[in-house]
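User: Write out your own:

AI:
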Amino acid sequence: MSKHLVLPLLLGALAVLAAPARAQWVTQTLQLRPGWNAVFLHVDAAHASLDQLVGAGAPVATPIEEVWRWNPNPATHQFVQSPQQPVDTGSQWSSWRRSGGGPATLDRLTANTAYLVYSTADYAWELKGQPVLPNYRWSTSGLNFFGFPTVPAGAPSFEDFLAEVPSLQFSEIFQYPGGEFGVNNPRRVFALRTTPVRRGEAFWIRAGEVYNHYFGPFEITAAGSGRVAFGDSLSSFSFRVRNQTAAALAVTLELVASESPPAGQKAIAGCRRCWCVARWTRWI
């Protein structure tokens, strides 16, 4: 059986560009159910406001009524005992509501961030943004709210995905199945063998005093922000691929042409500016 994990690298086209480099674009699709959904963004969609993406200024009507962002602050050492419901006062949440109800404290969607989204119907939310490398500041003082960069289709189970990190196999994991908040939303995940680690879904995870830096079987580190902008001065860019397992991995890189930019963003000149997908395959 083959397993894959996809990590977008912001490598751009691996050549010197005469014109200033522009951002690469890719669409992340989030499958929303009626009620509360936990999502995790692997793309940066901060080029537009939430009002422009799903509010009154959106190009199409959406059933999304509320968006809440979890803002972890490890410096406070706040212990989170159980998954939190979003509230405005005295919490680590910021929010956007279609109906108003006070000033919005959330305006833009950024990558490597978990959100709670309230939808009134089933909806495939397509968000176009800039792909970024996985990154999360893990806290050992309570629960963490984040997602993993697994493949869009045929996601592995938690048991399979966490096989490389035994310390996380005994962690507490909670997910949101949809619907209103209640005893079973969010709910504890016990069936690790059959519960998929879906790309774009956020989970609450508590692993005690275990510090985690695992997003998948391999890790990619790049200089600075991880973005490549050759412009008229940069001629090379380096990055490192680190095997996070004790076994050999086969990692391949594939250049993929960027999607067309969102409305109001600068045009991209053909395939000269691309983004790169890294995949791993291990046979067991």
Confidence is low (pLDDT under 50) at residues 9-21. The helical segments are 50-53, 158-161, 166-169. Residues 65 and 99 are 7 Å apart (CA to CA).
